[in-house]
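Table 4 source record.
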Amino acid sequence: MIELLSALGLAIALEGALYAAFPGAMRRALASVSAQPDQALRMGGLVALALGVLIVWLVRG
């Protein structure tokens, strides 16, 4: 549970750093995402999910 919370905190910190460093680019990225169809977002989410699981599997091996 500690590792899960640590990973969540790291993800939030990284996202916060992007917003702090590049607010205009993040605003444009969010506008671009909101214009995408649901199917494209779903596929992108599934790819990100698979990539994340693969990375954890390789690191934890």
